[in-house]
Amino acid sequence: MKLCRAALGVLLLAPLGVRAVEPISLGLALAGVLTGYISYPRLYCLFAECCVQKPNLSRKELQKDLNSKLFGQHLAKKVILNAVSGFMSNAKPKKPLTLSLHGWTGTGKNFASKIIAENIYEGGLNSDYVHLFVATLHFPHASNVTLYKDQLQLWIRGNVSACARSIFIFDEMDKMHAGLIDAIKPFLDYYDHVDGVSYQKAIFIFLSNAGAERITDVALDFWRSGKQREEIKLKDMEHALSVSAFNNRNNLKCSPEAMKLMRTL
Ligand SMILES: Nc1ncnc2c1ncn2[C@@H]1O[C@H](COP(=O)(O)OP(=O)(O)OP(=O)(O)O)[C@@H](O)[C@H]1O
Ligand SMILES: [Mg+2]
């Protein structure tokens, strides 16, 4: 109120200035500025979160973050860096980016996905464009799988329509009920559009303990034979994972179709 009175006082005391800026012109000018603010994305994005604030994700920044924060995961670091920076620099990817991170509990799967999210959206996991699903929390009842399936597909569709560069993180994939992985599958393929929506710029990250024992075995074998941990190559793990995690139907319950897909991620 004090401010309004002061403004009124200034207006009354400055009749010349008031005449120069008459109300209609002032209104139009304000409307113009507001329209400009709303319609000029870069300006708007200075004040509010936008779909992909950093379209040119900095490979250097991501590398710096991974090196300084994520320890002992040379394979994951390399894959994440190349996959994420390559994908983000591609203006027209042919399919969404799908990453599947496997490992024993507490090895940094959620931590790594947080680093990825933060390098794409300033808000990281809190961003409106980053969606985290925890199988046991969001899809707890086997009897509701059909409902979850519909809700999940609607959620993914709605959010990718609103922001093509949406990120979906699925935690505890190994505890996901049968059918739900099949529900995600259509979004991960090489389709230009599915029902009028393109999913090619979206990012899907799957976190799982599946295969953790085999990963530990491989690391232990390397250690026993006196080799450095960094000597472990991705192909050593890929083989271990393909024979362990997704062949075990008790670990990951999904259709053969979805299992094939997960093996190729
Ligand atoms: N490789 C790592 N480098 C640095 N910090 C780590 C690493 N792994 C785990 N941490 C720390 O431990 C915390 C827990 O790890 P995180 O939640 O990412 O494990 P997880 O692999 O998702 O385990 P779970 O399978 O039990 O979900 C992280 O928030 C982080 O602080
Ligand atoms: Mg976790």
Task: Outline the fold blueprint.
Layout: H1 2-13, H2 15-20, H3 23-39, H4 41-44, H5 59-69, H6 74-89, E1 97-102, H7 109-120, E2 130-134, H8 135-138, H9 145-162, E3 167-171, H10 180-188, E4 203-208, H11 212-224, H12 234-244, H13 256-264
Helix pairs in contact: 5-6, 5-7, 11-12
What's this entry about, in short?
This protein is an alpha/beta fold and 265 residues long. The chain has helices at residues 2-13, 15-20, 23-39, 41-44, 59-69, 74-89, 109-120, 135-138, 145-162, 180-188, 212-224, 234-244, 256-264; strands spanning 97-102, 130-134, 167-171, 203-208.
Could you walk me through the main structural features you see in this protein, from its secondary elements to its overall organization?
It is globular, with a radius of gyration of 25 Å. With 265 residues, the protein is α/β, with parallel strands linked by helices. β3, α10 (180-188) and β4 form a beta-alpha-beta unit. The chain has 13 helices and four strands. Strands 1-4-3-2 form a four-stranded parallel β-sheet. The chain has helices at residues 2-13, 15-20, 23-39, 41-44, 59-69, 74-89, 109-120, 135-138, 145-162, 180-188, 212-224, 234-244, 256-264, and strands at 97-102, 130-134, 167-171, 203-208. It has two domains: 2-44, no CATH class; 59-264, 3-Layer(aba) Sandwich (Rossmann fold). Bound molecules: adenosine-5'-triphosphate and magnesium ion. This is Torsin-1A. Keywords: Signal, Synapse. Residues 1-20 form the signal peptide. Belongs to the ClpA/ClpB family. Torsin subfamily. Its main location: other.
